[in-house]
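Appendix B. Chain record.
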Amino acid sequence: METKKCIIKNDINEVNTLVSFVDELAEQWNIPMKNVFNINLALEEIVSNTIFYGYSDSETHSIEIEFANHVDYIQIKITDDAKEFNPLLKETPDDIDKPVEERKIGGLGIHIVKNIMFDLDYKRDANRNTLLMKNKI
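Structure tokens predicted for this chain:
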């Protein structure tokens, strides 16, 4: 099993760095484009939420994303020192079937992540969040 790590700052512009990293990884590991799209979508949702809502100061923080190439899935571990937040406890919005203009803001991105990834796991340890998610190849 090969692993690769990307460390970004809590700056929304760093999401572009992460997307480029995933694209390069996809070439190295021959990850199908459908999976690359889903991985980037999930990462953008989780990481942007962390950047926008996870920090109450204006200090620079690191968000670490580690990728592991398994035979039939890619494992992604996201670790940060943001406020405690377990996205797995976020319920599916009750207005998910309504037209976009009638829905409340929030919750849809995490719902999408739960649907495109499998075997999600969250833990809080030593003031750090760790989200583990897998994408089946």
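Further analysis of this model is presented in Appendix C.
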